[in-house]
Amino acid sequence: MNYTRLIVTSVAIFIFALLWNGLIHAVVLQDANAALVNVARPAAERNMGLALLLTAGLAFLFVWSYAYTAQHGTLREGIAHGLFFAVLAGFLVNLNQYILYPLPASLVMKWFVSGLVEFCIYGGLASWLYPIKRITAHSDERY
Questions:
Q1: How many C-beta atoms surround the C-beta of residue 129 within 10 A?
Q2: What is the pLDDT of residues 68-113, one digit of tens each?
């Protein structure tokens, strides 16, 4: 495993995640997210350090799992990895929150779709910034 590329790719995805989520939640879904004002924790009580740590951890796990599972490092593999992560996160987070809290289904679907796009972009970034070179019977290249 190339640890330098792992860190660089994780940092790039972390930065993209911050920008993407800022755009989606503070601009695109600002009015829709307003429906959560009575359910969500007040902004002053949110732990931003923990939120940043969670985002960084997710970026790292995404790249780490990509590095171990991608066979050729193609854009198609990156997007497929992103789709897998998005569906997994959608079930674990979005669907679970819909079950637990009185959230509008339309908002949960918007979160899910934006997550699909977000994680596919993560996959594209991973395939670009962390090229995969596997050892094969016909190659002596090392990753």
A1: 17
A2: 999 999 999 999 999 999 999 999 999 999 999 888 899 999 999 9
- The one-character DSSP state at 76 is H
Dist CA 41 CA 36 (whole Å): 9
Category of 104 on φ-ψ map: left (φ > 0), alpha (ψ -120 to 50) or beta: beta
Residue where the block lists tokens 């879904």? 29
Biggest CA pair distance of the chain: 61
Q: 39 falls in which pLDDT band (50, 70, 90)?
A: confident
| Rounded CA separation 90/109 (Å) | 9
Rounded Cα–Cα distance for residues 68 and 55 (Å): 20
Between 138 and 67, where is the model more confident?
Answer: 67
Q: How far is CA 106 from CA 33, 52, 53, 96, 120, in A?
A: 11, 27, 28, 15, 21
Sequence-distant (6+) residues with CB within 8 A of 35 are 103, 104, 107
